[in-house]
Amino acid sequence: MSQSASLSRRSVLGAALAATTALPTFAQSPALEKVVFGTNWRAQAGHGGFYQAVADGTYRRLGLDVEIQQGGPQVNNRPMLPVGRLDFLMTGNLLLTFDQVKNGVPITVIGAIFQKDPQAIIAHPGQGYDKWDAVKKAPAVLVSKDGQFSFWQWMKADHGFRDEQLKPYTFNLGPFLADKRVVQQAYSISEPINVRRQAGFDPVVHLLADHGFNTYSTTIETRTQLVREKPDLVRRFMEGTIAGWYNYMYGDRAAANALIRRDNPDMTEEYIEASVKLMKDLQIVDSGDALTRGIGAMTEERVKSFYDKMVTAGLYKPGEVDLSKVATTQFVNKGFGLDIKRRLGGR
Asked: What is the model's pLDDT at position 346?
């Protein structure tokens, strides 16, 4: 398909086409370009902006036919990106990209939807863990195997946690609920909902991002070849995604939620809405640089800052990862979508 001038930098936001959803207006493309986007887990509110851009036609207005290929316990989308089975991939945080670049995989991050990683430590209320500094005194900290070799190393290096406290977390809330003295890792936009459902109380939530774990999260990777050879396609996908996230967070997300529930029937409308509320309350998406540069914002300085912390934590050696290959700011930091937010009354 020809990437015509009608889909060039003239991509400007038009008037709202519905009372609660603002859609970008673009000249119609003569044909839609097929794009396959992979997520890292089953459909949920944390993927909402991508589903929104499908549901409200934003991607199509940009000349893109976007298929969302969800991940899951038996699905590993990561190797599908470098071999060309996927065009774009949603990843958890920068540690995954550091590993890919270290191993010579030709991929790069083109945007970061979450300014804050949702990874958290949760505790029972009324047990003396209301302050972060007190958490390191807990007799046991439940952490998964992956967490033990990532953020736990940072927690030890930067905050004085000790391996003697470490206990395995198997993604079962039972041990945490049974012992008020222990604390555990949690994905802050889901586990607190499960605690409320199962035990009837709201846990104390300590977001690691608020204490220095400054990785970007829900990052979007693509092949460096695609950035080099089809930058207009990459730009259109990012602009559609950014618009989708503003409309999802501040507009009418009913159609997107319906698509999420279609792909993941375990999700309920109540659960999705509770998760969106946590994303807003914890300022996961729209905070930091995103407030002035738009959702998806990244800086080279922050990527380096996080890498340096991981070096201190012993996860990498100095200079082991070529940070110039980790991310590109070519498609973000332009304030795109801020007028959607204003039009929808976003706060």
From this structure: 81
